[in-house]
Amino acid sequence: MRSYGVNVEANPVVAVLHAEALPDPARMAPVAEHATVRYTRRDGLPDALDGAEVLFVYDFRTDALPHAWHAANRLDWIHAASAGVDPLMFPELRDSDVTVTNSRGIFDAPIAEYVLAQILSFAKDIPESLRLQRDHVWKHRDSERIAGRSVLVVGTGPIGRAIARLLTAVGMKVSGSGRRGRDDDPDFGTVTATEDLPAALAVADFVVLAAPLTDSTHGLFDAEMFAAMRPGARLVNVGRGELVRTDDLVDALRSGAVGGAALDVVDPEPLPPDHPLWDLPGVVITPHNSGDFFGWQDTLVDAFAENFRRWRAGSPLENVVDKRLGYVPSS
């Protein structure tokens, strides 16, 4: 374990990379009380990094850091205001001694609720009910039950586990897919190894993508994987858009091999207005907000402030990312 922290008599420099909105100053007060805080957008990041010991990546979708890395001459620790850290996993950072932490745990339950909502929307055909209401049409229809239906969750980290627990609680039969296969997992029961994923897809009514984006998961869901899915099964993606080869998904939806898709993340992102995914039947698209509950920004800043307190005290940091894996290993 590395030794964290600085001389508490010194006044460390903390760079905060933000987009349009700044972190709430009141939430940042525990940091500003003990540090010089430099707020910056991407264009000013090199100047802000010069002499900074800490970087708070509040703009969690940014790709600015690799271009400013040359200025990181004193950097000790980077904290990401997100669970995924794929934009930060460029070679120079991976090979450095800089510690990376993330905001694991904040979005688990909200994303699980989103997944359940989308599965229920598919089963009860809520989009068609809204269309009929819009047209003032009273039309009786039957709907599916979700109890007893099978769900494969691809990704067995904290978000995948929160999804598994919630779907199990409503009576669905949940299994997982991860790097290692096992039959005694406390949340999934059975976890299928990635190399055996096609066989697991063949028996799932719903497939939920909740894996981190790494070299091994990039483009994992391609034409071969979609062909392996049970005909008419639905896909829910709350991981990263790049887990899916978008053109192959479009083809699978058009052919009916995939019965529908709820996509909170897409590739490219944002989705261009003329992209065919917008108009395909059975597709629901949301703008990467499945975990964004009222107050989530404040919760992210609070998590950083707590980790900053630990850093100053020389205590172990929370949610330390294994830069080789690209995520926080499960304990």
Automatic annotation (TrEMBL):
Its EC number is 1.-.-.-. Residues 36-321 form the D-isomer specific 2-hydroxyacid dehydrogenase catalytic domain. It is an enzyme of class 1 (oxidoreductase). Residues 116-289 form the D-isomer specific 2-hydroxyacid dehydrogenase NAD-binding domain. InterPro entries: D-isomer_2_OHA_DH_cat_dom, D-isomer_DH_NAD-bd, NAD(P)-bd_dom_sf. One of its GO terms (molecular function) is NAD binding. Pfam families: 2-Hacid_dh, 2-Hacid_dh_C. Keywords: NAD, Oxidoreductase. Belongs to the D-isomer specific 2-hydroxyacid dehydrogenase family. This is Phosphoglycerate dehydrogenase.
